[in-house]
Automatic annotation (TrEMBL):
UniProt entry keywords in alphabetical sequence: NAD, Oxidoreductase
Species whose genome carries this gene: Pseudomonas brassicae
Coiled coil: none
InterPro entries given in the database record: D-isomer_2_OHA_DH_cat_dom (IPR006139), D-isomer_DH_CS (IPR029753), D-isomer_DH_CS1 (IPR029752), D-isomer_DH_NAD-bd (IPR006140), D-LDH-like (IPR058205), NAD(P)-bd_dom_sf (IPR036291)
SUPFAM superfamilies referenced in this protein's UniProt entry, alphabetically: Formate/glycerate dehydrogenase catalytic domain-like, NAD(P)-binding Rossmann-fold domains
Listed Pfam families: 2-Hacid_dh (PF00389), 2-Hacid_dh_C (PF02826)
Protein name: 2-hydroxyacid dehydrogenase
Residue span(s) of domain D-isomer specific 2-hydroxyacid dehydrogenase catalytic: 4-327
One MF term in the entry's GO annotations: NAD binding
Length: 329
């Protein structure tokens, strides 16, 4: 059986080639992002393996089906980029990786908090230039601060455990409270109350029609002045242009983003020799209290190994007529 991995990077090739079950599949790698223009590359492949910024709209799925594709194997937990109704209509099965390493994403969120708080990015640049002054580098103790966890699934739970270890007071929002988060001493609140009370807010919820632009001008206005916002979930959880006004006014004191709503045409590529065409992202990058990373929170050896192993197992089980981790519209 032949499988084509779109948006594949060298680390994908390494993790997939060493994963259990790799020898039973003919794996092929394509660095191009899946789109209407590149879907023809999948002609003759029964399995297409897609990543988070690949286009799996109805038009693309139609082209994949016409080329002989029967299975869409996602290398991600999220599936908001898949037209599930179209996949069902076309008879295309869709499988995903529901969990790989919640610790990877949770730890990256904490890394953003620590870097922003202690101005590590600014300190690093200063000392590289021979400037060893401490002006403007004052941070705050995390101990005793109130941290709001929005979304308390596996990643949110892992994040809450870390912040509890720092001695933080935990608030949580999720339509389905997690008893393990409650056992850490977290109080579940409605989202508006959490946003008003928390000094640090970290987003770990999936992107749905209900959560799109969960953070918007109105919710930003309710934050404590100088609050910190971290997003390692999905870019569209946040109305990004609204962040600029909140940063300019000081309402938002710190911002850490690992995801961006318009990242599909930007992230995962070296664009250092090109002018940045996205005016919103370019503006965000001018703020000294903002750190943007290029969707790397998942990028640990353990997470990559788990993604590869689960994806190949999903393909093997589907081929054997015993599919698991199916996504159904």
């Amino acid at each position: 059986m032949h499988a084509l991995l779109f948006s594949s990077q060298p680390y994908d090739q390494d993790s997939f080639s060493h994963a259990p079950g790799a020898a039973q599949l003919a794996l092929h790698y394509q660095s191009a992002r899946l789109s209407e223009d590149t879907a023809a590359l999948a002609a003759g492949y029964e399995v297409v393996c897609a990543f988070i910024n690949d286009d799996l709209s109805a038009a693309v799925l139609q082209r994949l089906k016409a080329g002989g594709t029967r299975l869409i194997a996602l290398r991600s937990a999220g599936y908001n980029h898949v037209d599930l109704a179209a996949a069902k209509r076309l008879g295309l099965a869709v499988v995903r990786v529901p969990a790989y390493s919640p610790h990877a994403v949770a730890e990256h969120a904490v890394a953003l908090i620590l870097a922003l708080n202690r101005r590590l990015h600014r300190a690093y640049n200063r000392t590289r230039e021979g400037d060893f002054s401490l002006h403007g580098l004052t941070g705050f103790d995390l101990h005793g601060k109130t941290v709001g966890v929005v979304g308390t699934g596996q990643i949110g739970l892992a994040f809450a455990r870390i912040m509890a270890g720092f001695g933080c007071q935990l608030l949580a929002y999720d339509p389905f409270p997690n008893p393990q988060v409650q056992a850490l001493g977290a109080r579940y609140l409605d989202l508006p109350d959490l946003l008003r009370e928390a000094q640090i807010i970290s987003l770990h919820c999936p992107l749905t029609t209900q959560t799109k632009h969960l953070i918007n001008p109105q919710s930003l206005a309710s934050l404590q002045p100088g609050a910190m916002l971290i997003n390692t979930g999905r870019g569209a959880l946040v109305d990004t242009p609204a962040l600029i006004d909140a940063l300019k006014s000081g309402q938002l004191g710190y911002l850490g983003l690992d995801v961006y709503e318009e990242e599909a045409q930007i992230f995962f590529e070296d664009r250092s020799d090109l002018p940045l065409q996205d005016d919103v992202l370019a503006r965000l990058l001018t703020f000294p209290n903002v750190i943007v990373t290029a969707h790397q929170a998942f990028l640990t050896r353990e997470a990559l190994a788990a993604i590869a192993a689960t994806t190949l197992d999903n393909i093997a089980r589907w081929a054997a007529g015993n599919p698991q981790n199916l996504v159904e519209g």
